[in-house]
Design brief:
The complex is a heterodimer of chains A (324) and B (351).
Chain A lengths: L1 H10 L1 H48 L9 E2 L4 E2 L2 H32 L2 H13 L5 H18 L1 H8 L16 H24 L4 H9 L4 H12 L1 H17 L2 H6 L17 H9 L5 H36 L4
Chain B lengths: L1 H23 L2 E7 L4 H14 L3 E6 L3 H9 L5 E4 L5 H6 L6 E15 L9 E2 L1 H9 L8 H6 L11 E5 L4 H13 L1 H6 L12 E3 L1 H11 L3 E6 H6 L6 E3 L5 E2 L3 H9 L24 E9 L1 E2 L2 H15 L16 H11 L3 E2 L2 E2 L4
Parallel strand pairs in B: 1-2, 1-3, 5-9, 6-7, 6-8, 12-13
Antiparallel strand pairs in B: 3-11, 4-8, 4-11, 9-10, 13-14
Classes of the chains: A mainly alpha (324), B alpha/beta (351).
Chain lengths: 324, 351
């Protein structure tokens, strides 16, 4: 058998290398084609956004980003309220979801008995398969009224007089509801990605820590956690990307409003949700163009966040001395 | 011999079926647009299909704006919109001579509210509605609201305005009304399917608005009649130009259309704030949009026949679904406009 193969190899060296060469070339061409498709899609999206936004860019200039005032009747547009809205909602949801999500992941990997870990993790991951419009309905019909009658009243009574940020009218729909529903949506993503990272902590490392007399807390946070910090930060950043772009669930719960947010219970828009809500019934070319301009800003924001994230992960990896 | 006969019979049968097809027409009609008209349009599609089993009507309720876009892009046999084409859009479609607007139905927008303990139907004057939506009337026991409702004890609750958070034909109808009755609204806000609201919170869709009203005592907003009735949300009567407080019943919308003084030749009219004694003042129409010159003769014949049926026999399905029956004056004008649509140089409609 071996000798036969050797004979064959000896007999047909020319053909064989020829074939490999051809296969190689085809493979290479195929890969290049795939890469070009991806790049073409990226460029295509960018070009379409710029072309669509061009009339608004010409009319409003870069000041569009820092101006307030959004009046479709008199065609005055400025995207600052939506940019700030996007940041408030994304950051708010991240604060809620990251803490809970990370602790849940630690609980699943370190504290639960082994036979319970996988089923619980699976149940949480199931949350990720619920379509966002269903979350939107849940937010509108359940979460918003619940917040309206509990959390918002509490915030108003206890913090409202001291911080203008919490001094609003408890109406349910608004930034707070959008933040809450978005945080719920981010949870499965954060839990599952951080769990994957935590599972990478070498058993020996934790065991050595215990052997040296470390408590469970010290073993997890002091020894294990720094080892997988990259993965966790990566998980947070992927979630942030999702938070910035989430559209329909936010559109259904944020209430809608074109002014700058005055407090956490106010109603407004994020860049993505204003496009979703206004696109269908857009009344003029200028308005359409202004909405696409918002899309372009969102696109740029996402790219910037991702580059920033890449740099952070690289730097963290450098500190730790191993690559991401 | 038999084989020959067979084939002869076959070809004869084929021929007959050809002729049959040509006269009865068959195929699918695609329309897109207004969500408001969707329940009625679905009913029409079903009933029309029962009458003409060869014809399928496929209506996509993507919103009036989308309907106008699809119509301009010529991807549908007809568009349906709660607002007529703007001048800009008409120009895009090749000018007013190229397009017909056929009103097919009408409906009222109601002022819905949530006031616990007030069981009597509230009455609103235009000044009160404008005042509340401008944010100048802040409390329910405001003298203006009290003056509209003698004998009703109103609570000292704040007025919470709920409006549509997304662009909507309903908003267009409502702001069209406010623009007509309030100079302050006209100068400060104006009319549109999406406007810069001076006050209040947004709800997505009729559902979102209704939900916020239901959840907040003191809430008030505008929604379509069918929606308020199905969800048992109380709504008020509105004082019209003749000084009468009118319930938003569909028949009072028909009254409003019947009292239109002059109907523009292109049928791009508005029935808000009409003078008839029984006219409900906040109401709108849905138009079917057609090109005057139908390039596809078969489709042109089918679509005009369907629309003709919808504005005549089809009207009997309107009331049950809380739509207003087209007033006689409008129905006549609509049919006359439909007769100007041509298929291959001749009018599409024969009867």
């Amino acid at each position: 058998m071996t000798s036969a193969t050797a004979e064959l190899r000896a007999a047909t060296p020319q053909r064989k290398t020829g074939r490999i060469g051809r296969a190689d070339r085809i493979f290479r061409a195929l890969i290049m084609a795939m890469v070009s498709v991806v790049l073409a899609i990226f460029t295509g999206v960018l070009v379409v956004l710029i072309v669509g936004a061009w009339p608004a860019m010409k009319r409003f200039g870069p000041g569009f980003i820092v101006h307030t005032g959004w009046d479709p009747v008199h065609l005055v547009f400025g995207a600052l309220p939506f940019l700030i809205g996007t940041i408030i909602v994304a950051v708010g949801a991240m604060i809620l979801a990251c803490g809970v999500g990370l602790l849940t992941a630690v609980c699943i990997t370190e504290l639960l008995p082994a036979w319970l870990q996988a089923p619980v993790a699976y149940l949480i991951e199931l949350l990720a398969f619920i379509p966002s419009v269903v979350y939107g309905l849940f937010g509108l019909l359940v979460v918003a009224p619940l917040l309206q009658n509990t959390v918002e009243i509490w915030l108003l009574e206890h913090l409202g007089s001291r911080f203008a940020f919490f001094n609003g009218s408890p109406y349910g729909v608004g930034y707070l509801s959008a933040i809450a529903i978005l945080a719920i949506m981010l949870l499965p993503l954060i839990v599952s990605l951080s769990r994957e990272a935590l599972l990478l902590i070498p058993r020996e490392l934790k065991e050595s820590a215990y052997a040296l007399g470390a408590t469970r807390w010290e073993a997890i946070w002091g020894v294990g956690f720094p080892f997988v910090r990259n993965g966790i930060v990566g998980a947070f950043i992927i979630s942030l990307g999702r938070a910035l772009g989430e559209t329909i669930a936010v559109a259904m719960t944020i209430g809608g409003g074109f002014r700058l947010p005055r407090n956490i219970m106010d109603q407004g828009y994020t860049l993505a949700s204003v496009i979703a809500n206004e696109f269908n019934e857009v009344s003029s070319e200028t308005y359409l163009s202004a909405l696409i301009y918002c899309g372009l800003i969102l696109f740029a924001l996402t790219v910037v966040v991702n580059i920033f994230a890449y740099v952070i992960v690289r730097r963290l990896a450098g500190i730790r001395g191993f690559s991401a | 011999m038999t084989r020959k006969m067979n084939s002869a019979i076959c070809s004869l049968a084929l021929c007959v079926s050809c002729v049959g097809l040509a006269s009865a027409q068959s195929g699918a009609l695609t329309g897109a647009g207004s969500t408001f008209v969707n329940p009625l349009m679905s009913k029409w599609s079903k009933e029309y299909h029962t009458l003409h089993p060869n014809i399928e009507i496929n209506y996509q309720s993507i919103g009036s704006g989308g309907g106008r876009q699809q119509f301009l892009a010529k991807t549908v046999a007809f568009g349906a919109s709660d607002a007529p084409l703007t001048d800009e859009q008409l120009a895009q479609a090749g000018g007013v001579a190229n397009v017909v607007h056929i009103p097919v139905t009408q409906g009222s927008v109601v002022i819905a509210y949530n006031l616990q303990g007030v069981s009597k139907q509230l009455r609103f004057s235009p000044e009160t509605i404008a005042g509340m939506f401008l944010g100048t009337i802040k409390l329910w026991n405001d003298p203006k609201i009290a003056a509209d409702n003698p004998g009703v004890s109103l609570p000292t609750k704040p007025v919470l305005i709920v409006h549509r958070s997304e662009g909507s034909g309903t908003t267009d109808i409502f702001t069209d009304y406010l623009t007509k009755v309030s100079a302050e609204w006209k100068s400060k806000v104006g009319r549109g399917s999406s406007v810069q609201w001076p006050t209040g919170i947004g709800g997505q869709g009729n559902e979102g608005v209704a939900n916020s009203i239901r959840n907040t005592v003191g809430g008030i907003g505008y929604i379509e009649l069918a929606y308020a009735r199905q969800n048992k949300i109380p709504y008020g009567s509105v004082k019209n130009r003749s000084g009468n407080y009118i319930d938003p019943d569909p028949k009072n919308v028909t009254n409003a259309a019947a009292s239109l003084k002059e109907i523009p030749a292109d049928l791009r009219f508005s029935i808000t704030d009409q003078a008839g004694p029984q006219a409900y003042p906040i109401a709108g129409s849905t138009w079917v949009l057609l090109y005057k010159t139908q390039t596809d003769v078969g489709q042109g014949n089918m679509v005009t026949a369907f629309v003709q049926w919808a504005i005549t026999d089809g009207q009997k399905y309107a009331t049950d679904l809380d739509y207003a029956v087209l007033a006689k004056n409008l129905a006549q004008k609509a049919e006359a406009a439909l007769r100007t649509v041509t298929c291959g140089g001749k009018p599409c409609l024969h009867k």
